[in-house]
Amino acid sequence: MAALDPLLQHCQQQLSLAFDAAIAKTIEASGQLAMSALKAARRDELLLTQGLLRQQQANSVQHFAAALQREWARQHDKSPQPRTTDWGELSLMEDSAVDAIVVSDRIGKALGHGSEWELRDMEAYTGALLNDESAGPDRNPLRPEVVARALLAAVDALTDQANLRQTLSEELTRALAPFMPAFYADTSEFLRHRGLQAAPLRPVSAEAASRPNASGAAPSPNTAGAGTPSMGGGASAAAGSGGLGGTTGSASGSYGGSGMRGGAGFFGQVDAGMMNLLRQLSVTSAPAPGSSLIQELAAEAAGASLALPGNVISLHREQLREATQTPLDHMVIDVVAGLFDAILADPKVPPQMARLLARLQLPVLRAALGDTSFFAKRKHPVRRFVNRLASLACAFDDFSHDPGLAFLRRVAELVEEIASGDFEKVKLYDEKLDALERVVQEQQQAQLAAASQAGQDGAQAVAMLERKELLARQQHVYGQQLEKSLADLPLPEFLRRFLWRDWAAVVVQSQQQQGDLLALQMKRIGRDLALSVLPKGGSPARREFLSQLPVLVRSVNQGLDKVGSPEPIRKQLFADLLPVHAESLKTPALSPLDHNLLVKRIEAAFGLAVPDEATAQRATAALDIDLEQVFAPAEAQGVGLMAEAAVAWSGEVDIALDAEEAPLAAVDIAIEGLPAPEAPAPTSGGALFDHLEIGCAYRLNTENVWRKVRLSHISAQRSFFIFTEGDTHPKTVTMTARMLRRLCESERLRAFESAHLLERATARARSQLAALLPEKS
What we know:
It is a single chain. This protein is mostly helical. It is built from 32 helices and five strands. A five-stranded antiparallel β-sheet has the order 4-3-2-1-5, with helices on both faces. Strand 3 (about 720-725) and strand 4 form a beta hairpin. The longest helix is centred in the N-terminal third of the chain and has 31 residues, at about 5-35. The radius of gyration is 33 Å and the shape is globular. It starts with 5 loop residues before the first helix and ends in a 5-residue tail after the last helix.
């Protein structure tokens, strides 16, 4: 591969961090094993392993990462075309090649032994990760066999001694294996957050995917007594069933919550008679001839008053129930009818979006009849599509003109393509979800362009944030290296801290803006500043110091100007330097040897190279970097950067919520007789940070006033987040990850919706039914 995919690059960084941790663990374990070794040869071998890893730890991680890239490039390349081979060309594989295959296979099994379930979850994203729907687990670029070959390549680069290679591979495998389950679990979660879709579940057999038909096939014993509560349809509940007012019972165990996906990408099997009826009703419930959803939206935007469409499922409930004799299907019909009663009456769903969602009643019913995991899985494609539409609509304040009207037009096209298309196919919803995300991306880019500040458009702001993020990571790594080099030098603590924290930023920015020459000049100024506090015994040294001091002060000020350093930092530096310089003039000079050795050490510290972007990115991938430090005041104002100091964290936040906005739990959306649902996505608190979605609306409180903002951009490393406020004349609000996480944890940032639309509809329908049912004695 010419360039590593950003997602694979992130995975490589995380895997390299795990390998680095495994090396550190091996270094410690080897020393302990050597102390308890009974044989001298084994003890020497373990001590040699420890010393080799300690010296070559950084190089080993680099060899490991490079080997991963080679493996991925080899897998990415297409296999060569077959050619006719002469029998004389055939030969046996060499013993060393066979041994290498056996060893890598053994290591792969050891690495994957404790992470079977995590690996299985992660393998579901192989097709999306490689942009190839046909890619299966055998092409997973992160499978244990690939990691094993990279580990062996790193070991081979360390030594050519067979015994030492065996010890290294055994100890590293033993140390790396415990990190693999967490790596695969974190990777699955990362890919989910980046919008990748897992491959659909495949039934174990044809029978497992089939549904009981209406021609007399006996229902499952677990569904024979399933309740059929009335939700907008008026059906009576079976004896012993609490309907929607009860809790999830044993039926959830019978279905396992895994859904009933059929073959060839269908939502399970539904009787032909039911499918024909659904299509007929879809045609009859479509807009009148000569009209369309888009035309209705245009008329409504022009001021026409249009009535909301009714609940098609409730209106044709008896016909739908007659098309199937399965109690579970009867229950699903009533549940979906009740859901759309609640959806069409939801106060947070704009009427224009409610009109579009009403067109999806029959497609949703078809999906629920064939796949009961629709009620349980948040990531179900139909559930995701409906919830995403409602969440995106909440972000707009006005649909009478663009951008709200343009969004509705695009959504109307997608909805009509589903309602009039093959809505029994999973692929159709996947395609429309992808199309919807493209619409969102285009609109958010337009919003950022409209929200220009200080003459800088949205594209420039995003590019600047990416540069600033890399700059902050380089400064962090270079500052750490400089701090380590200065740690043992006899310098005042304030000066040491200034050099690695403040002056390191000057060096890195000079390197980035004007190249090596200016960076070298800034390093020399830092060196001179460190040398200025050394003893100056003798009149010539004092005169030379006093003559150069004004130049040094001016150079330091010019360097700090480049990074927009605040004035208090300079004043404090020079205030602290004044008595130190005075003392250095009175202190006897060091011996020439000591002085020269000290100068060499200081020069060596400032001779360190500024790390390149890739090295800095890899070294800080898992760190929480303070990104505000790299912005000058004018730059921060230009992108609308919200500083942590601008928020009164000590004040209390008014988060009083009414009953409709109270957060929901899994028990609030559980339906007896259907699979147990997953817990709703968090809408507040620290967990919200990991569930933020582009295009969605959030409520922000920074000055004891709640404001409605929309998330418009997330940087590739989730380090910067750009929100926009307002539709007509939007303005940007930019936050670092640290700032945003703190806002979430203090509940100053909350989702605009108390829960996703279908979760709210389920909870509302359950509460309405519970109020109608007689109280149990």
